[in-house]
Design a protein that fits this description.
The complex is a heterodimer of chains A (about 210) and B (about 270). Chain A has about 210 residues and is mostly helical. Chain A has a domain of about 90 residues: Orthogonal Bundle (Rna Polymerase Sigma Factor, Chain: A). Chain A has eleven helices and no strands. The longest helix of chain A is centred in the N-terminal third of the chain and has 23 residues. Chain B has three domains: about 55 residues; about 90 residues, no CATH class; about 80 residues, no CATH class. In chain B, about 50% of the residues lie in helices and about 10% in strands. Classes of the chains: A mainly alpha (about 210), B alpha+beta (about 270). The interface between A and B is large, with 63 and 45 residues.
Chain lengths: ~210, ~270
């Protein structure tokens, strides 16, 4: 049985720069979904996600020679470009995004879905509901951008702290602390922490100390 | 382990990112003795389940296939340009132009026609419409003045006869229109009577016979006098002019018989 090794991103990039369209296609196939999902999870907009993928790969075609393998990976480079575009678009379309989020929130309220997913019965049953997924999505979208991106990269894309820090361009410790703070905010937004009166008071005191 | 130490570890504990197995055991032992930290860990685990469900829900999302096709075309266009540049500069120039044209064409497809570009295109269309309306309003304001020429010019009722023939008198085109005989220019002391040759370009109409000269045949010499006449006067003389801006002065050449009777008039451009 003959095994064929999968070429690395860097090898595909070299072939691509030599004019190999198939190498470009292979690299695109490998990375487009991740970038699309990242942009979609950051913005909640398919249109924006599509624009970001297109802009990233067009710039990659134009400036592929600017990639420096000593400074990071191809995927980090692509995600870095995507992050830059997403944040720029979000800043420009902030009102648009928040309006959509509010509309969806209103729809959820009118359809009887709770704002968070505090379960009266079994939480696992509730979590499996698509409405709950939507609630988590909205909670993530309502996070401030620098918290949202660490949740998207580390929790949804399952990247390591190191990979996320390469993309964001900040120290690993910053990623870790942002993620911790972002998770607390999500728990509060989703009202996942159900405590007795005493425990709640203790929780509030502990969090204020932290 | 204190609750504060646990708070700093709980996210990593819930996602199995803790590097040390011993720390994990100590943290879990702490939850057994602390209701608060136990609830916190449960909340973190619930959050993990929610985030996993969200990730799974959007894991199949990907860019549309047409985007791949357009990017592949873009790639091929760019590399064709590069390879042609190395062959012949002229060919390369053509390819660059072709590539630019391809980019312009793509702007009008939904692939590249993003929300921003849609707004830009809408703004451009709005500017063009405003400009067109402004031009149309401006032209409509110009129309009354120009219409005087437009109305008059197609109906030259008196034509000047060729110079040598004294016997041939010009006739009016319409049978019921007044008839005026105008002496040929050469017989009318051209240097004093008529405008210069350069002024011929300024003439807006040919001579129009005046109504009170109708039916008379003039055999005497006549003179041409350039005058400024109010528009209302010309209308009163029977010229088909618009009554708007009746006080406006128009320049005209008046052909006057030697007996002092005005015979015909022609308008001159301002």
């Amino acid at each position: 049985m003959k095994l064929t090794a999968t070429p690395s991103d860097e090898a595909l990039l070299r072939q691509m720069m030599a004019g190999d369209a198939n190498a470009f296609e292979q690299l695109y196939d490998r990375r487009q979904a991740g970038i699309y999902q990242y942009a979609l999870r950051m913005s909640g907009s398919h249109t924006l996600a599509e624009d970001v993928v297109q802009d990233v790969f067009i710039e990659f075609l134009r400036d592929a020679n600017l990639f420096d393998s000593s400074r990071g990976t191809v995927v980090g480079y692509l995600f870095g470009m995507a992050r830059h575009r997403v944040l720029r678009r979000l800043a420009r379309e902030r009102k648009y995004v928040s309006l959509i989020a509010e509309e969806q929130k209103e729809e959820m309220r009118s359809s009887g879905v709770p704002d968070g997913f505090v379960a009266e019965t079994d939480p696992l049953t509730d979590i499996e509901r698509s409405e709950t997924v939507e609630a988590v999505r909205q909670a993530v979208l309502r996070l401030p951008e620098h918290y949202r991106e660490v949740v998207v990269l580390c929790s949804l894309h399952e990247m390591s702290y190191e990979q996320a820090s390469e993309i964001i361009g900040c120290p690993v410790g910053t990623v870790r602390s942002r993620l911790s703070r972002a998770r607390i905010m999500l728990i509060e937004k989703l009202q996942l922490l159900r405590l007795t009166g005493v425990a709640f008071a203790q929780s509030a005191r502990t969090r204020s100390e932290v | 382990m204190t609750c504060q130490e646990f708070e700093q570890l709980v996210a990593e504990l819930s996602t199995d990112r803790l590097a040390s197995a011993r720390t994990r055991v100590v943290a879990l032992a702490h939850t057994a003795s602390c209701e608060l930290c136990s609830a916190r860990l449960i909340a973190e685990k619930k959050l993990n389940i929610g985030l996993s469900a969200l990730a799974e829900n959007s894991n199949r999302e990907q860019a549309p296939i047409r985007l791949k096709q357009s990017l592949r075309a873009e790639f091929e266009a760019r590399h064709a340009t590069k390879s042609r540049e190395s062959i012949a500069p002229g060919v390369a120039r053509f390819t660059v132009q072709h590539s630019r044209w391809a980019k312009v064409r793509r702007l009008w497809t939904w692939e590249l026609f993003t929300a921003d570009r849609r707004w830009q295109a809408a703004a451009a269309v709005a500017i063009v419409i405003i400009f067109a309306v402004a031009v149309s309003v401006w032209r409509s304001r110009e129309t009354p003045e120009q219409s005087a020429f437009l109305i008059v010019s197609p109906s030259p009722e008196v034509t000047e006869t060729p110079a040598p023939s004294k016997d041939i008198a010009p006739r009016l085109a319409a049978n019921d229109a007044p008839r005026v005989v105008v002496k040929p220019k050469q017989a009318v002391r051209p240097r004093r009577q008529s405008p210069s040759q350069a002024d011929k370009n300024d003439l807006a109409t040919n001579y129009i016979p005046l109504s009170f000269a109708a039916g008379s045949t003039i055999s005497n010499e006549s003179v041409v006098v350039r005058v400024n006449v109010p528009r209302t006067t010309l209308i009163a003389m029977g010229l088909p002019l618009s009554v708007e801006r009746g006080n406006e002065m128009l320049k005209a050449d008046l052909r006057v018989g030697l007996d002092g009777v005005p015979l015909a008039i022609r308008l001159v451009r301002q």
